[in-house]
């Protein structure tokens, strides 16, 4: 982001002047420390700006380099929430926003002072082969200085997570530690200024270096107590001054001791906790998005904690004794008074960051998916939900994969840019050289990474080979990045992307002095590859050598005696060089009481499948054993379980789990009339899950196809979902003959057809794309029926398979079916994108057929049409869903614009407090019918007239309307018809905003909309600028909310409504609506401020 957007408020004048909080419109970022003593960076330009751009500018002002700036984020002290990197600020909306630039991602014991906690360090090239490598420091000196300033601020203002002090001994220890930290604070000032401790203490009192509550406590002590404390501190200061002169500690050592002391004082320092309204663990694949249907208003009963060393944990809280502390803003007396705190259970681990597969969000609802579990969370707001998942997402990139994101809604723009262009992060030169040497087999390869020093520069690295052809070093070329344009130094050509630039360079020769370089291929980041971008947590992360699972030909799960334990039932068919049988496996002896149930059989038996290697292929026995051994060492819900091997004479047999409904391709053909898109998405997701698991173990399957995916549960019955399992791959691809490999086209990856080398993970990515096409086409692919020459020619010509009708799915599959293996996405990315498409597809499934709509009764009529209750019952069995159908009166002519506007607007809204759009039915006469969710209690206006509701209940409704309107405005829509009659009631604790016929979209650079069309207007709810000038803005909606709030608090009493003359008379006399009875004064003040001109 160009620095010219920023104005800097310096600290060169008096201290009082420099700390004055900015009042100008815009976004103002507070810096705890900077070399130039700047305190605020202000973005007041009209153009929008992202949180990532603000962080980069702040990092540049502080001197933090690109490798370390990802540890920082923007924090809003008012809402106690963090902003995700992709959050967009709109400074032209007439608001002044003060944010703090803070280190958010914190690794305890980065200083290695605590031998009771695991050390942390960044990976080095040696880390890949030497697990005991010391690594590189987690923080640079500028980051350390900034962290110190932030920690001092938090310590003095008591913003760190302090545990309750239960005894006088603990209180005394806290006081002593606080004084010790004050001493370190003063020692740091002395070293920086070259002064003695005594001189520094005259300018900065130790009272200003301890928590405010402790300082207040001292101020209330007796005079003699104060004098004794000061005398003791001064005596300690003389001792420390002597030690400083003798040992001469450096600034970093003092900082490390201060941070270490703070970590000891606050065991949860560096962690974040979130109070959640609802927590549900477990769940099956049927649920792929957060559960947003839960009613609001429930009390907080769970708490989540996220920390770098322990991942995600949770615990229950007793709601009756919750003492809620938000963002560390605690009562300043809490250290010294005995107050009732939380009665809690111990923290329970949910998962560490490597275990997270995907995160989905829908407003305040979050779904965290892992390999074997799921966590559904309802936060208190959408802002807090984004704050939460951006924390998990950031730690994932710091500990697992520096180039991957878990949730698109919070993905940093630079990560998206890097992924689209195959860019590496700011990795060090030794990793660049190591990466290029690994790719040395690839002719004329290059690598593009972000600069380690400059935020607006990239570096193109190409191998520099010596005379014998081996690579000893690499040559660097700089690429400048400014205003979304990329230029190579020394070349005037401008490019819109790095990918376009490198593709163009393939047709040119790069010159540097007398040396010439050519580029044919770019090395992209690989899934989870080690670099200095990742932090190694000793004792938590596995070593690099144990991250993958290597085949072990000698280690078998167990041996089975064929004759004694296996009873063959029937021959099922043929595999690749194998016979397949159905059989029973004896697994144990039954007790006497169970014999009757088993028809007198004394042995327990389970049904299994036998794969018997043909005796004519004994030359591949070792490969058969290797495959069986490898598959017996992996275990996953969506992998067929391998019981083990049986060697009976010349027969080599693999014994594996029996899966009831057989191969997926056969099942798809047989049941295609019953299969829904959602069913197919679930199956594809389960397959991707299994392949992602294998990829994390370093295992390539090599034979992914529909016939190797087995159906364990049909999922066709109501309330059930399918379950599939990937079977073993059979004989390895590189052992097959050329004809057998050609036969596997199009499932086999193109690079495997002519190569005898072991297949890489890219082969599974290709095969998954083809299998997904197979699922879309109900088990059939046109290419599968082609002759071998036709198949071979198809690959030679780089042919394309038929795409599915869904555009999103077609783009997804085409990424898998790239003829360049390194361009295929990693399975973690495939799984994430597939789930996103699945959620999007479910949200846009809006086709309703008239023949399935069964009319119940009329819910209401208006000037333009009516709302009718229907049951949508495609199964015609009375189990359908109740929906509200809004239709126009039958008239000739085209549909009114406002009607089409409401349909188009509702499609894109997804919020708990906005009525759900379900779809349209275009068969209802000559006009469209709008299908919406049915809310049984009708409008809030009629509901309040009939029901006796307390003020607190009314305020709950008002809060939910605020939340819905906040979401609406975040999408830059104004409602223009907000009133109690347009609020619908689902139950006693949930209301939703409806009727978007008058809503308007406000473009990015505008602040209001001027209405020119004629039509009925709800003048009683309109602000003055709307009545006089036809100008509508976000603020005019706020006015309408004030009137709606008055309606709610008067329970929509008709006697308190006004006619037009009375309303105009009030407004002309600068009067406003009278205060409703029993209205709290705080609410009255809010309503008064809302209804200001």
UniProtKB/TrEMBL annotation:
Catalytic activity: L-tyrosyl-[protein] + ATP = O-phospho-L-tyrosyl-[protein] + ADP + H(+)
Annotated localization: Endomembrane system
InterPro entries: Band_41_domain, FERM_domain, FERM_F1, FERM_F2, JAK, JAK1-3/TYK2_PHL_dom, Kinase-like_dom_sf, Prot_kinase_dom
Organismal lineage: Eukaryota, Metazoa, Chordata, Craniata, Vertebrata
Domain of life: Eukaryota
Ranges where the FERM domain occurs: 25-403
Descriptive protein name: Tyrosine-protein kinase
Keywords in alphabetical order: ATP-binding, Kinase, Membrane, Nucleotide-binding, Phosphoprotein, Repeat, SH2 domain, Transferase, Tyrosine-protein kinase
Active site: 977 (proton acceptor)
Enzyme's top EC category: transferase
Enzyme Commission numbers on file: 2.7.10.2
Gene3D superfamilies found in the cross-reference section: Phosphorylase Kinase, domain 1 (3.30.200.20), Transferase(Phosphotransferase) domain 1 (1.10.510.10)
